[in-house]
Specification:
Layout: E1 9-18, E2 21-31, E3 36-40, H1 47-55, E4 60-68, E5 71-72, H2 78-84, E6 86-89, E7 96-100, H3 101-113, H4 119-132, E8 143-144, H5 150-164, E9 168-172, H6 180-193, E10 199-204, E11 217-222, E12 225-230, H7 232-241, H8 247-252
Parallel strand pairs: 3-10, 3-11, 6-9, 9-10
Antiparallel strand pairs: 1-2, 1-4, 4-5, 7-8, 11-12
Helix pairs in contact: 3-5, 5-6
Amino acid sequence: MPSTANPLFSCSDVHIWIADKEVVKGVDLVVNAGEIHAIMGPNGSGKSTLANGLMGHPAYTVEGRLTLVGKDISALSPDEKARHGVFLGFQYPVAVPGVTVASFLRAAVSALRGADVPIKEFRKELLARMADLEMDTGFAGRYLNDGFSGGEKKRLEILQLLMLKPRFAMLDETDSGLDIDALRIVATGINKAATADTGVLLVTHYQRLLNYVKPDVVHVFMNGRVVRSGGPELAIELDERGYDWLEPAAAGGA
């Protein structure tokens, strides 16, 4: 495993409140370049809150320190974090009628680069990435998530990931609602994005995504805390045994 002396991303003693309820209760994570981390846990454990809070969801109160490539990004807004190379793939992507997929992606890529991307260059890249995800070219002209199936929404999240090329990507339950073919395609996109220079944090309930995207580290999240971390074998154990056997650790804040 790479050294943790200079991690790509780290967070320390992160607490997150929704209104007056503390949902995330002190989380430390270190993700190195080239690593894929998976966070697994039961419903209501705070996994999605953690991902959204790290990105800077305006409805959450977040305390703790976040760094990206050695820079403190704790106080940055979501758009500033995105410009620095942080990406969040949503569990429930929002529909934006009237804005096409191509227009949205070109605006996003241009914002990251600080200059308009030439249409010809953008179109070539977009079509190549859509081919990676086995998407029909007509998809680019559809309105953003408007009338999309669950699988189409998740493919669009991964298309954004491939186009934006972030340094650190958090994917919140990207596998939810996918049939086996869509899961395979989405996983292919994640693996393509997970280069030696990037870090990936997958939030998932199930081990099935991890059959296609091999994690370096698996964290078990319960009661707002990481209660155990291990290698990919931990995900298999969770699939076989569930989470009940870890409840004493979760209750004790271990």
